[in-house]
Amino acid sequence: MQYIFLIYGDEKAWAKLPPGEMDDMYGAFRKYSQALVDAGVMRGGSELKPVATATTVRSRNGKVTTVDGPFAETKEQLGGYYIVDVPNLEKALEWAGKCPGARLGGIEVRPLVES
Amino acid sequence: MLGRILDQVVRREGTRVLAGLIRLTGDFELAEEAFQEACARAAGAWPREGLPERPGAWLTTVARRCAVDLIRRRRTGALPVEALPEPHLPEPVEDPADISGVEDDRLRLLFVCCHPALAQPAQVGLALRTLAGLSTREIARAFLEPEVTTAQRLVRAKRKIREARIPYEVPRPEVFPERLEAVLAVVYLVFNEGYSATDHPGLLRPDLCAEAIRLGRLLVELLPGEPEARALLALMLLHDARRETRLGPDGVLVPLEEQERRRWDRAAIAEGTALLDGAVAERRAGPYQVQAAIAALHARAEKPEDTDWPQIAALYGALLRLAPTPVVELNAAVALAMAEGPEQGLPWIDRLAASDALVGYHLLPAARADLLRRAGRVDEARAAYGEALRLVRNPAERGYLERRLRELG
Predict the structure, then answer these.
(1) CATH number of the domain that residue A62 is part of
(2) What is the ipTM of this complex?
């Protein structure tokens, strides 16, 4: 079963991390990604650029409108994601708990709909 | 003296130079920085060495060198930045106007500045900055905000263009009409802010109107096949022709029917009317053509009583079908009242007031008050003027409403 880890956090706080801590975090993410690959559960993922680069598109009655900004303004922002393939939610939560992103913000774990 | 010439060169050719730089560097921020640097160097070199034969080409060449320097400096800077493009830019061309495709650069720039992925205030700011050549300080002054607010908005917008990779291109045919709509909207917004400044004493910001008209001319030049671009320029010229007569010596708004029509700018009216005729001949109707046609009918009437109100009411009906907004509806109701009598328009306005669509909009009670006054319903008119006065912010408009209220006794 596939799960997506939506990594939320305060991107302002993230940007303000001292360089040393920032490097440590990136190092931790690299290690974590490698662990997912080694375990054979990694299906993809990426860090996202800040919400200031977001654009929201809506289509109503055939008319597409495009606006600057994220879908909803929130205190914590979506900063990255992983997709993992594991047998069950327990396994997914176990992996999510190890994700470095969980230390700063939170990880929303959601199963993908199987097609 | 040379400073003035430099200003003129920047105004006339700056957009071209900047647009070309953006294409070469693929980086909006870098191009602008290089362009600023080139202008600073011109201010130093021209008084010393004399004005170059082709100032635009001089700026282009120097700006390119500055761009290469900036790329090098970023490379060797303390921060390891992401992969940068090679600092090898194509050879400078002699005269930027000579090579084909340069006009397309300006057109691309226009569409990037007004891209819907940017918030509208950012679109307006970018257009004034890069297309009209206004400084950040001038833009801040125009919109009555601290310079740092304007600067931050521009920086954020440019960063988004780079980070989210908004393409430097003319939109594809499927989305072209709506993107053009956004471009026209930005220009008209600048004009309207100049024509009826929200908070500014004196109602008018002629500087902003002039910038909007300049941008309108650029649009017509770059998009000769678009009737709506021509109609927008026509509309702005027709409104602007009345500028001198819209305020009395006391700084109070003079309504259309009391304006001194002899003083309307005949040349602007003639140009606007000719542009409109050309646009209408294309037989692709649009909201700016209808609005310009309404403005042309007002401009044509030598005396207020000559105004062709039935025709204007019909045009507002057409506008309501093309752009059904509450403000257009309010205008349509007033035109109907002027054509067929106040009692014909008032029920429509009352329905609009009841619909809550224009809550807080002072022109709704103001229009209602005006029609009630014409209908001789003095007490109701007085109450409506009072309501309008509670909402109005612009002092010139306030003065006019106060005068009307006084006249009712």
Answers:
(1) 3.30.70.1060
(2) 0.74
